[in-house]
Amino acid sequence: MARGITIRYDQRLFDLEENFVVFNPEKKNHYAKHLLTLKVIYGFKDCLSYKSHLKHLRLLKSLDLKGITLTDSLLNEIGMLVHLKYLIIRTKAKSLPPSFSNLCNLETLVVNNLEGSCMVLSPCFWSLAKLRDVRMECCTLFDPDINEPTVLDEDLRLENLRTLYVIYLPGSEDTEDIFKWFPNLQILEVCIEQLPDCSAEKICFPRLDVLNELEELHLSASWDSFGEYTHGFPLSLKTLKLRGLALTYDTLSRIARLPNLEELILEYTIIEEGKEWNMEAFFAERSS
């Protein structure tokens, strides 16, 4: 009996409603309830109808639905698949439904956001204690309606989380200690957004030097004027990419002293008000 299935659907070859039964619990598809792995590569987009369900696939451990744009009802049904460890979805939703708090075994969560949406990591996200890898095109910890973090417990920590991107944060004082909730991150991509009527000089960056296991960091800023990151960097960094920032010589000196740094990428950066950067001195400091 098949325990895994990969689907490449082409609606030009056969009719979906009559032939495709994995998502229909009313069809005689005895193998479906025994599936451990299901992957849909491409082709569905918005083709699945109201008859489609996921709740009967209760043994699934790996679910890859990047070939399907999920309806709200299907997204909610994923929360019934309590054995899931690996999940890839494509959705227009602005946040994860409360049912996701049931996914106590989930380790990998990948979300392909559609139509430029930004996924709010709602309170149910904080109950996923086994999460190790979270990858989204855009996500945020702040509820846009109240502009406050979605975390309900200040002492909560997602200690197993190793990868988090791309997370968007407002450049406010509230974000300075935000990464205390993810103390063991190894890969992080974060973009700082400028608040309305706020100059670059007033932008606040989160402290990144508290992430003692961080090896790869992509830090960018999304505004016209260049803000300055004044905090330190984790000594564990191997790859550092900075974009849209103003860098002083003190900042460059701190980067030069990172003992494990192997790759430095600077894009659209300003170095001390346009002065020439002495790269030879930088690398001399690296080797000293």
Automatic annotation (TrEMBL):
InterPro entries (alphabetical): LRR_dom_sf, LRR_R13L4/SHOC2-like
UniProt xrefs under Pfam families: LRR_14 (PF23598)
Domain of life: Eukaryota
Ranges of residues in domain Disease resistance R13L4/SHOC-2-like LRR: 45-268
Keyword terms, alphabetized: Repeat
PANTHER family linked: NB-ARC DOMAIN-CONTAINING PROTEIN, TUBULIN-SPECIFIC CHAPERONE E
Identification of the protein by name: NBS-LRR resistance protein
Originating organism: Solanum tuberosum (Potato)
